[in-house]
Please model this.
Amino acid sequence: MASVKLTNIKKIYDNNVTAVHDFNLEIKDKEFVVFVGPSGCGKSTTLRMIAGLEDISDGTLEIDGEVVNDLQPKDRDIAMVFQNYALYPHMTVYNNIAFSLRLKKVPEDEIFTRVNNAAQILGITEYLSRKPRALSGGQRQRVAIGRAMVRNAKVFLMDEPLSNLDAKLRNQMRAEIILLRQKLDTTFVYVTHDQTEAMTLGDRIVIMKDGYIEQVGTPQEVFDTPVNLFVAGFIGSPQMNFLKAKLVQEGNGYSVEILGAKIPLNADQVAVLSRKNAKSQDIILGVRPEHTTVLFDKAENAIECTIDVNEMMGSELHLHLSSANDDKIIVRLPTVDLTQEQRSSLSYGNKMYITFPAKVMHLFDPETERSLIDG
Amino acid sequence: MTNQERGTQAPKRKLPLIAHILLAQVAVVLCCLLTWYLCENVVQKEYSDATYRTEVEMIDNNYNAMGYLKDANGKIAALQYAPVSDAITKAPLYQAVVDEMDLLNQHNLTVGRLIDRVKWGYDEADTTGRTITIDVSFSDPAVAEEIGNKLAEKLNSILTDKSKFPGPPINQPNRIEHYGLIQNPVRTGPNTLVWVIIAGIIAEGVFLTMAFQTGWKNKLTCIIMGFANLSRGQVLRGLLFFLFEVVAIGYMVGWGVGWLQKLPTLGTVKTEHYALVAGGQEIVSYGDDSFKILLYGVLTIFFILAVIYTYYQNVKQGRLAQKIEEAGKRLKSGREDLRSLVDDQFHKTLLALPVAGITVFTIMPIIFMVLVAFTNYSGTFDGKENLFHWVGLDNFNQLLTWTSNGSGNKTFMATFGEILAWTLMWAFFATFTNYFLGMFVAMAINKKGIKGKKLFRTILVMTIAIPQFISLLYVSKMFDKNGIVNSFLMNMGWIERALPFWEDATWARFTVIIINIWIGIPYLMLITTGILMNIPADLYESARIDGANPWQQYTRITLPYMLFVTGPYLLTSFTGNMNNFNVIYLLTGGGPTKLGAYSAGGVSAGNTDLLITWLFKITIGGDHLYYQASVIGILVFLVVALITLLVYSRLPSNKNEEDFQ
Amino acid sequence: MSNIANTASSQPKMKKHMGLKASRTVGNTLIYILLITISIIWLIPFVFIVLQSFRVESTHQVGYVVPQVWGFKNYADLFNSNFVKWYVNTFVTALFTCILQTLIVLCMSYTLSRFRFKMRKPLMKIMLILGLFPGMLSMIILYRVLKDLGLTQANAVPGLILVYVASSGMGYYVSKGFFDTIPKSLDEAARIDGATRAQVLYKIILPLSKPIVIYTLLTAFMGPWGDYVFAAYVSNNTSAGMNVAVGLYNWLSQDQINKKYTMFCAGGVLVAVPVTVLFMCLQRYYVEGVTGGAVKG
Model:
């Protein structure tokens, strides 16, 4: 059993700067949780508090039901992979991995077995006698993972392990981490600033900003039902489009008015809004590019936009559009079915029309930035 | 609410805080009363001695042998407690004392101590001065009597001993008269009032602290240090605190109080030397040693501070332990404490020895020497033979005069000002000539297209390796009047007379700076080379494309970067050069001598003297006026600190950090 | 079109190019002259000392350099004089100081680099301020204390070692700069792997610190060879307790110089040679220490 429970965790530095405010989270045994957010949001600080590398200013941290606030890192039975690998430069790969076992006075033959097993899983057996400086970035990262693996620790912490790798390697390693997770079958806490990593790797994602938790949920949850503007904009690539619009209440129904289009909301949405007694108000409408349909000709409830930029991505085009009230919109247009005439009309200044169904709309209050339906 | 805040909520008390404080006051009063009672009735108080008087009247007329002092009218002057130069005056009495060695051994006395307790005088009424009065003082009247009698007899036999005192024949034996106890032992003793006040203060501190503690364990720890830990199972910590308390009390009672008592006066009892017979064996009766009093007195004050700090820690431990207990957690055991000394508390283990060393060998001496500036400690008043004492601000007043006192020499401050001016000038030139010339050499070697970089650097680096004193001493001799340089120049016919490299003040100053360049460039070259290599090359390339010539590249790119990185180094280099003893002292000894400069105890200042070499000369030369050296040292520190503070806050590295990163 | 344009514009280009090259050669030649001159000037005094140490015809300070009569007499005389004792004294002092001082400095600089504790900044500030006091002031009282302990005059060596070593923690600056360049994540990884902070120090950090350890050992060893002030004060005119700096200095005083000048040169050579050789063997570490830690700080 290796659950991690953070209750009211705070980190306040000596100069009274609060890095982490009131962090509450329960991580179940064998769960893969990702802390994600922009720089300075407190994700690394929280991870380091779990590790014991930073003192916890307030709150309780429990690992496996035991309060570990005052325990040294080595007594918490955790393993950690660092962003810059932190391999011991003067030791061979073998010794790097064996280091923690030797400290525990594990017999040498057992060390031999365990190190070789880990090396095999990670594909670094042939590097065992080399020193870190003779390895590439990806290989070093694997050694760092190997060093953490052999400990069979209760909790596996990873602090932006892929940030120092180039894009192609990153994709490769991402897949390997998923495989690794299946093999290791332990609790993972992973920190990254890349939302793609968060979405692909995590069972649950914790989105953080300025020391606060914005939302906790599965990747699907945070994608489909973001509770506020920040989460909505952070998750998903390209970023969700935000448009100025109005929520209009008419009797028992609600619709969204935007630039001449009026889109009625569906039953579920209406139900939620009625329960909350929502009134007509200005809103920020969020629609993902992949949920937006692009039309060359005007249609009912379509919004007219002009083209700013046209990015050729190969199988699709990313069109950057401006609406009549200067909202910037990005849409994705598959190229495979376009006619030549349509292609040539995709130049600066030309008009396009976009439309979307009610169910993909996200409504946000402009002041609180919370979602009116999911928040 | 943080963990800390939660812990200090609602301490449990059975009575309100006011009640505890009042109880504490009661306890204090009781303590004072107890102290008073002890002082008055119980403590073995000191008694003034009982004094037993005998008289020996000499029938022998030979005054001279007694060495009486006669005044102008031929009248016998009173015998004072004469120092060793009048040895012969006391010689017979001391001889008597020595002859009674058995007596001494019986009463466990040393000769020196005995002499302290024997006073002699003469019968005023007897104008011939032939009667010697012996007053022997001892705490035990019986001993005083016994010794007094024995001494009188012995004195008598010596005085009648012809071999010792040849003279007219003795007609009658000397008369011995016993007067008996002229003074009974009287109680003197510790000043009760002072002790009561001290007891009151300590008691107030202890009991008031106690009032603010909760729980009997924490209260008791205010009296028995370590109790809070011991009673909760932390044996190691508790024992350490308790041991400390024992040692602290033991030291204070045994020695500490003694030193502190003498600290205000720095000693009153002088050391006396006696010779038993003229030119014979010398006995020394040791009095106070001002130096030791100052040293140990200050140490004791620090010890008291340490005691207060440890006491505070002791009480704090009690509170922390209580909080932990209330939170239901376990206290750290002794073994855990030891283990944490190599882990999270490792820094304490690592720092213990270095910090102790610095405290004892750097901080203490500095504090001590600063205090010396307020005394008159010098070669003559070195505390042993001649006690020194506090003079307050006298030294400063005396030295900090700007106008001359008419003796023809300049005042202290005038000379100080001159030397300070030269010191600053020297530091400035020494630092910056080395800096820019070293940088120039580094750039020359570093230039593209120059081969043999390694060779040139190695040659220069080698000169760093050779111990400075050899280079400096030899070079200083090279520039002597009859040295190699002058001989060479004369042989070449370029000059007729020897150049006064060291004899003329201005020449000397120039030569010193030039030679310092020779010493300093290799080191500066090393440092600047490293930094030069770090400047990104593309800065220069883009500058060249923009049309900058080499000089502009230097002033716009190289120089700002160098100054930024080496800013702090330049500052430390400047202040270091202000105190650069070796170069100046070994080259010139501070000379040539300033004419008309202030003479500090027979030591005169030189034209190339830095403040620090002047300080050194005052310390080792002439009257060894240590207190003057201290004053100079303090002034030097103030100047250097001022410069450091002023410059440091303006350093580019502090202001423009972002620009370079 | 393009070819003609190229030839037309190539002529002036070539002229400029040659001018650039020529001026560079001139510049370089000047620099070579400068550097060679500097090298000669820097080495001259040492060459002179060596030459003078072989001078046999007279022991005075003279106005010429090259000896008329060569010989080893000066060196032989050294061995019959107090020089041997001074040399041994200095060597012993340097040896003990070297080891003990390195220990203390590394303890201090490692702690200040790696640990964050309440007294850290105050401690560094205090040491900064203490460093501003002229070191000479402490001399008087330290001498008195050493005297009471019996560690002066003939017993100057243990006294000197004690004083050199005890306060050496204040010279942490360069070593700390070095330790600061080792990433803290190495410490953290080791601590998570199960090492105590003491184990982190000697299993991880020290193996990586060879350059700075050698630098500290080297500078600590070289120090006592050149210390005049304190050694003079502590030995207090007792020849048996002097170090080479004091002894040789006395040989150049007014009354002794005419007998001892050439011996001074010989003595200087004997002191300089081993120290320089040691330094040159380890100069790589010295340079690394100076350029790395001294200035980055």
Q: What stands out?
A: The CA atoms of residues 211 and 284 of chain C lie 8 Å apart. The mean pLDDT of chain C is 82. The domain at 81-296 of chain C is CATH 1.10.3720.10 (MetI-like fold).
